[in-house]
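To: structure desk
From: M.T.
Subject: fold request, one chain
Message: Could you run this one when you get a chance? Sequence is below, nothing fancy, just the single chain.
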Amino acid sequence: MKEHNPINQEYVGPVSPKSQVTLPAPPEASSTVDPTVLDAYRTSVREYYIYLENRLKHRQKVFHWQYYSSIVIFFVVIILVGTGIYFAAVQFHHGLKQGGDEKETITQLEATTSGIKISSPVLGVLILIISLVFFYLYLAFVYPINELL
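Reply: Done. Structure tokens follow.
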């Protein structure tokens, strides 16, 4: 009959399911176990739990940073979208003031090394569409909060 050896037994410590780490079972406090082995085991387990505690603290700091940075990003996005809607309103107003001028109803697009110039009666609509698409993409891909498992 085989003798029961507690050092070869393994158990799963309190870790997340994604990173299962097996620790050896604690040696029995008996006369057959060397006290230095027992001390080394206790030290290694203590260090392991300190490591887990530091991992948790780091994760909490990352979540706090993401929380505050997402607030800043949210307000920047709102300012960008609001500015786009304002520019669209200015373009609509400019188009209404011009009326039906034949010169202003032609769409012009110039692309040079110094930049791009667009002149169109529908420029307000383009700015509005770009602003709303940007806002939709932000809401769909950046803003959602996903539950960690």
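Reply (cont.): The radius of gyration is 32 Å. Let me know if you need anything else for the meeting.
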